[in-house]
Write a structure and sequence with these properties.
By secondary structure, the chain is α/β, with parallel strands linked by helices. The protein has 4 domains: 118 residues, no CATH class; 176 residues, Rossmann fold; 231 residues, Spore Coat Polysaccharide Biosynthesis Protein SpsA, Chain A (Alpha-Beta Complex), CATH 3.90.550; 101 residues, 3 helical TM bundles of succinate and fumarate reductases (Up-down Bundle). Helix content is 39%, strand content 14%. The strands form 6 sheets. Strands 1, 2, 3, 4, 11, 12 and 25 form a 7-stranded mixed β-sheet that branches. Helix 1 crosses helix 7 and helix 9 packs parallel to helix 15. The protein is elongated, with a radius of gyration of 33 Å. The termini are far apart. 41% of the residues are buried. The structure holds NADP nicotinamide-adenine-dinucleotide phosphate (NAP). The site of NADP nicotinamide-adenine-dinucleotide phosphate (NAP) has 30 residues, from helix 1, helix 8 and helix 19.
């Protein structure tokens, strides 16, 4: 980004002054005859929520004309605004498209690119686009009607153009520069045209780091026309403005033209929104919605699904659900709650999940949720500031569709994120159909066992599951009053301050209120020590480390450095709206004084980010650092920064690191033991009683015995004496040592819950064997030569 002093075709940002751009605003008070209260106006204005204009300043705004009644007025900042006019004027003036020709558009899903591509389709051209993610690729080819496209982060532009346009291209619409331009020059046909609209790949680089273009001689040899322009140039925007407005608004109205908007909500997130453009996180035109309360809310990427129904009193569940509502309200996650059962009892869980999955998949890709979090209604959100994006896999691990947690009983399906994907529909359908298709199987935990079996029985399903630490999104209760840890339960299962939620799996209904009450009280009091910001929880580092360790060879076919967390980040950026803090309406106005809303002439509620930031005004990196709090990736800041940290760290992650413990990557040598489930569906997992003889004393004793064997074995030989007492101690230690060793094998590999009879058989077998050996050794020591002497004789024989 350049310094404001560096010359360019537009004035740079100045530190301490508000940024400016095209904005749409509502007049809230006026004593000017041209503008009435309630009018919607558009104009080039500073980024601020309220502004008072008078005299000449009023010439910068005009009434927004919307003769066709286009519902989404954000189009007047995008397709019908400056980016649309940029695309329109330059394509016709410089590109001169002819039916049957081939055009290549870079940054094809961006505000300008998506208009160029659609205009070219209207003119009968073959359109090829380049984008920075698979999601964008799907968008341009499926929704915008591009004939073909590629993700330049996974395929080199030159390879892609050779593949997609072997005959060459007639027009290159340049938004990016660098490698794209080099590839396009290689592919240009004779007399082709290159419309140089933007060169975003080089905007933030010092001159010496710019891409070294080596094939510009083609401009001559292929007799190319290559022309840069600015939309405000005479003979560009002004020449085409009316035609552009008429044609494009008609196409938008009749639905033959699509224009996606990627809205950044809240003026406090504006800088994050600007930075997002340079990382490609935006999805089309990126307006900033100052107030964040427009009816056109930004597209959510994660939804939550819950259910509560039945005849029993649901008051406690409703209170628990209200903590989820608070979480959803703060961070903008749509919440689906089933209150009328669809199927029988537990199976409603998969029924509603399936219905929401299908509902989402039926939408165009750019309007869908990407993940759903299932949450049982006996879960209480303890930290409504915790973004759900935190726990999702990086975008390039796109083969992971389900995240599960395990407790000592196996999987627990009380809370889990599942990707909106056909795979998920298949899995949930298979689990739902499991009792019908496997009537002989005993599903002790009903839906949970059905899911568990479905995963076990089909690698198609199990290979797309990742098992995450339980505390991340499915933590269990700590002490009954929630204040301290429960010493009898493993700490890593217990909810800690800052954790997302606490789950009370299977707590019987009659004690549910008693168990949940203390936790609900903490949640409802919004206690500070529980409602930590993400960066204070340690989860940023933990999740980055986890995904880095658990990256499998097949997760990362192309190993690009920047794509790894983009969808997480883009989701975060789009959805994570910090808790809204209304502090009154006293704001700085243009006159430099302080005004209250009542005295202002207009209230600004939408503004156009991209032109300013992407092309016109580019502050230096240092300046940006000052402005954004994000200059240092490790700085504590918003989820945006979190994602940047992730991105930086992911960059360094070896692409083919294979997990050693990840269960979806493991290879079972023997068939797993049968699952035998005790209790009823979602019964609380019994916490084993702690006993010193099973814990530390046991281990200390065993270590002592193992350690004592070394001197006991060496001493008699070293000393040359054969002491019967020492010999007896050695024999006893040997018997104890082997007994403990075999006992550990039985405990580990033959769990009582799963194979109680086999285990009992082996336990008694071991006891009998130990007794036999002990008696034998006693005989050997008392009536024969003893161990040491026997060894000595064997050695010297
Ligand atoms: N000449 C003019 O009058 C005029 C007017 C308006 C805009 N412009 C220029 O036109 C271009 C497009 O503007 P826009 O409003 O449509 O921007 P935009 O799409 O809203 O945002 C920029 C897009 O460029 C892509 N990008 C960012 N960094 C990149 C990189 N290093 N390499 C490749 N692609 C990168 C990203 O998409 P991916 O995820 O697909 O990479 C990003 O979403 C910009 O260069 C802008 O400066 C010029």
């Amino acid at each position: 980004m350049r310094d404001s002093e560096t010359k360019s075709y537009v004035v740079g940002f100045e530190i301490g002054k508000p940024l400016t751009n095209t904005q749409i605003a509502k007049v809230i008070k006026s004593n000017n005859s041209q503008f009435n209260e309630g009018d919607t106006v558009i104009g080039f204005l500073p980024f601020q929520e309220y502004i008072a204009l008078s005299g000449d300043e009023l010439s910068g705004i005009r009434l927004l004309q919307n003769p066709l009644g286009i519902e989404d007025i954000r189009h007047f900042l995008g397709a019908l605004g400056m980016p649309g006019l940029t695309a329109y004027s330059s394509l016709y003036e410089i590109g001169k498209p002819q039916k049957g020709e081939t055009i290549f558009v870079s940054a094809a899903s961006g505000a300008v690119g998506q208009i160029v591509g659609q205009l070219a389709k209207h003119e009968g051209l073959t359109v090829i686009g380049s984008v920075g993610s698979d999601e964008k690729l799907e968008f341009i080819t499926k929704d915008l009607g591009y004939d073909a496209g590629f993700n330049y982060k996974t395929e080199k532009p030159s390879d892609a153009l050779n593949r997609l346009a072997p005959e060459g291209i007639d027009i290159y619409y340049e938004n990016v520069g660098g490698e794209h331009l080099q590839a396009a020059l290689d592919s240009m046909k004779d007399h082709g045209r290159i419309v140089v609209c933007g060169l975003i790949a080089g905007y933030n680089l010092p001159r010496e780091e710019h891409f070294p273009l080596r094939n510009y001689s083609y401009i001559l040899t292929k007799r190319l026309t290559m022309r840069g322009f600015v939309v405000g140039d005479k003979g560009m925007g002004d020449k085409y403005r009316q035609e552009h407005q008429e044609r494009v608004s008609q196409w938008i109205k009749d639905g033959t033209f699509k224009a996606s908007t990627w809205e950044c909500e809240g003026i406090e997130n504006g800088i994050d929104g600007i930075l997002a453009l340079f990382h490609g996180y935006n999805f089309g035109k990126a307006p900033l919605n100052y107030l964040g309360n427009s009816t056109d809310l930004p597209r959510a990427k994660i939804g939550k699904v819950m259910m509560v129904y039945g005849n029993k009193s649901n008051a406690i569940y409703e209170r628990a659900i209200s903590t989820h509502e608070e979480h959803s309200r703060r961070l903008g996650y749509p919440l689906f709650v089933l209150r009328i059962p669809i199927l029988q009892s537990y199976w409603n869980k998969y029924a509603i999940l399936l219905s929401v999955l299908l509902q989402e998949l039926a939408k165009p890709v750019d309007q869908r949720l990407e993940w759903l979090y299932w949450c049982d209604s006996d879960t209480v959100v303890m930290n409504p500031n915790m973004p759900l994006e935190t726990f999702l896999p990086p975008s390039d691990m796109s083969n992971i569709h389900l995240l599960l947690t395990n407790d000592w009983n196996g999987i627990n399906n009380g809370v889990f994120p599942i990707r909106v994907h056909p795979w998920s529909v298949e899995l949930v359908s298979a689990a739902l159909a499991y009792p019908a298709t496997n009537p002989e199987k005993d599903l002790f935990w009903n839906d949970q066992s059905a899911l568990s079996n479905t995963l076990k029985e089909a690698s198609y399903f199990s290979q797309s599951v990742m098992y995450c630490p339980l505390r991340w999104f499915n933590a269990y209760m700590r002490s009954p009053n929630g204040e301290g840890l429960n010493p009898d339960s493993p700490e890593h299962y217990q909810v800690h301050p800052g954790d997302l939620l606490v789950h009370f799996p299977g707590t019987p209904h009659d004690v549910l209120e008693e168990r949940l009450e203390p936790y609900l009280a903490i949640a409802e009091a919004h206690r500070q020590e529980w409602e930590l910001s993400l960066e204070d929880t340690g989860y940023m580092e933990e999740t980055v480390g986890f995904w880095k360790r658990n990256r499998r060879a097949d997760d990362h076919p192309y190993s690009t450095s920047t794509s790894s967390v983009q969808s997480t980040l883009s989701a975060t950026l789009q959805h994570v709206k910090p808790p809204r803090r209304f502090t009154g309406l006293t704001l700085r106005c243009l006159s430099g004084g302080v005004c209250r809303a009542d005295y202002c002439y207009s209230i600004i509620f939408l503004c156009d980010i991209p032109a300013t930031m992407a092309s016109f005004i580019r502050p230096s990196g240092a300046m940006l650092g000052q402005m954004t709090r994000l200059s240092a990736p490790q700085s504590k800041t918003t989820p945006f920064a979190m994602a940047l940290v992730r991105q930086t760290q992911m960059k360094n992650a070896p692409s083919s690191q294979i997990t050693s413990f990840h269960s979806s990557a493991k290879r079972d040598i023997l068939n797993p033991l049968p699952q035998v489930i005790q209790g009823t569906m979602n019964d609380p997992a019994p916490i084993p009683h702690s006993s010193p003889s099973h814990g530390s004393y046991h281990w200390t004793f065993e270590r002592l015995i193992a350690a004592s064997l070394v001197p006991l074995t060496i001493a008699p030989f070293a000393a040359g004496t054969l002491n019967p007492v020492m010999d007896s101690i050695l024999a006893t230690s040997l018997v104890l040592h082997s007994h403990i060793g075999f006992q550990a094998l039985i405990v580990d590999y033959l769990p009582e819950k799963r194979v109680p009879k086999t285990r009992a058989f082996f336990v008694w077998g071991l006891r009998a064997a130990t007794l036999t050996v002990a008696v034998g050794l006693y005989e050997f020591e008392t009536n024969d030569v003893g161990i040491t002497e026997a060894l000595k004789r064997i050695w010297t024989a």
